[in-house]
Amino acid sequence: MTGASEAFKSLKELGPDKMAAIDEMLTRGVVAAQVASIIQDEWGMLGGIKRDSVKKTLERYRKSELRDRIVAQIAGASDGLRASTLQKRASALDSLQELVEIQTGRFKKMLAREAQGPLLLKQVSDEGRLLKEMLVELGRLQLETGVLSRAPKKVTGTVTDATGQVSNFQWTQEQDELFRSIEQEGGYVTLRQ
After folding, report:
1. How far is the C-alpha of 12 from the C-alpha of 16, rounded, in Å?
2. Other CB atoms closer than 10 Å to residue 10's CB: what's the count?
3. Which one of 70, 108, 119, 180 is at 20 to 30 Å from 168 when CA atoms are compared?
4. Burial profile 105-139: b = 16 or more Cβ within 10 angstroms, e = fewer
5. Residue 58 contacts residue 19 (beta carbons within 8 Å)
6. pLDDT (tens digit, 9 = 90+) per residue, 56-111?
7. How many Å separate Cα 187 from the centre of its chain?
8. DSSP, residue by residue, the chain
């Protein structure tokens, strides 16, 4: 095993399903401390390792191996872009992810302070709102760079006509947008079977 693989051996031993879940959480902006908590408390794994050590390993994993994989995904999704542009996007993604982690910590501190007193604190709402905005921006950047792919919105179902004949159908978001644009221009749509 290489040095990097050896460093993340305990994580890799969790198996591909757990690693995929860890990758998804870290990519989505979940802080390493929270992921460590999920691994140890919810999954009951890595119990023989101190939580701070698991957290540090996750942080190093996110900044090295996971980041390299994300850059490769961005490069694949961004054919034709210069390497410097890709590097700027990856740096922006990393910076925003770090900011989200910091803001999550600030939000939790204010929430803990609010829990001690009988009154709700305006700062908790302010910190929560700022965290939400940062998460939305992180998600937008992840979609833009190709780290996350947009799920196609599709509705499927059946239609029963007057004679009792049942037909299956599916309707995608793209079809809906096309239908609406044609309708707005005063055109008409003919559906064919």
Report:
1. 7
2. 16
3. 180
4. eebbebeeebeeeeeeeeebeebeeebeebbeebe
5. no
6. 999 888 888 887 777 666 655 555 555 566 566 667 777 788 888 888 988 899 88
7. 39
8. --HHHHHTHHHHTT-HHHHHHHHHHHHHT--HHHHHHIIIIIS--STTS-HHHHHHHHHHHIIIIIHHHHHHHHHHHTTT--HHHHHHHHHHHHHHHHHHHHHHHHHHHHHHHHHHSSS--HHHHHHHHHHHHHHHHHHHHHHHHTSS-PPPPEEEEEEE-TT--EEEEEEEHHHHHHHHHHHHTT-------
Residue 21: count of CB within 10 angstroms of its CB: 16
Q: Which amino acid is at 59?
A: E
Cβ burial, residue 62 (10 Å; 0-12/13-18/19+): buried
Tokens representing 128 are: 């929560």
* This prediction's pTM: 0.43
Read off the tokens for 148.
């996350």
Place of tokens 């809906």: 176
Q: Which two tokens stand for residue 8?
A: 């993340």
